[in-house]
């Protein structure tokens, strides 16, 4: 018996008496709850619902019945699977197993057995090799027709990547929700401003305004930025460039990237410098 004495939580009364308590504690672990209710009615002549039986089990800690749902595999079936799982697909093993042994098996069950016994499944590359009967390509003529038919949707070369641009080529980059356009130039050597980022060793892209300024005045000091005085991103002449602290740049960008025009924008830059000095 699971219990040698009556637990303190048991209170006689209702449908469960002392004898029925020990009977249920023994039979609840042996049978499903529906069968326990039926057997209890036959043994004691009292009708008990499944909910009442489960409530009593929860109150008194009876262990539930464990259904043995695991499938039993014979040694012959395991040997048959071990020979075919490494060389056949799961769908083929499922179909042949049902035909050979007269019982169904799922791909999940095969994966579980493979994990349990260390079977290496057939490699799945996601494509058919030439000559595979499942690919529909059986002859060289069929294979050539298959390759010719895919040319219409095949990727066509012709785009310009970073390697195809010649040295000192220029291109525009558009970034941010406000679609700010910036002119970049391809120059030789690694990028000195991105030491923590793995960049190309032979060349890098840099803002043309920064590159023009560095050719005349050397590297941009830390905490500074190169700006175009007239606000035109395409005008990278040295006379139109100035190196200002980033605090000045923050004052300039406070109201967005818009500017008053080529004539008035230099005054906007100088006004931002005065506000930065005053603050």
Describe this structure in words.
There is one protein chain. The chain has helices at residues 18-27, 33-44, 50-60, 75-84, 90-101, 107-117, 140-149, 208-217, 246-252, 265-278; strands at 170-175, 180-188, 203-207, 224-228, 241-245. The chain has 279 residues and is α+β, with helices and mostly antiparallel strands. Strands 1-2-3 form a three-stranded antiparallel sheet. It has a two-stranded antiparallel sheet with strand order 4-5. Helix 9 (246-252) packs across helix 10 (265-278). The longest helix has 14 residues, at 265-278. The radius of gyration is 40 Å and the shape is elongated. The mean pLDDT is 79.
Short description:
The protein contains 10 helices and 5 strands.
Biggest sheet statistics: 3 strands, antiparallel
| Percent of residues in β-strands | 5-15%
Which secondary-structure class do the elements indicate?
A: alpha+beta
Rg over CA atoms, rounded to whole Å, is: 40 Å
| Total helical elements | 10
| General form | elongated
Helices and strands, in order, run as HHHHHHHEEEHEEHH
Low-confidence stretches: none
Provide the helix percentage: 25-40%
Give the strand tally: 5
Residue-averaged pLDDT, rounded? 79
**Biggest sheet, strands in spatial order?**
1-2-3
What is the end-to-end distance?
A: 87 Å
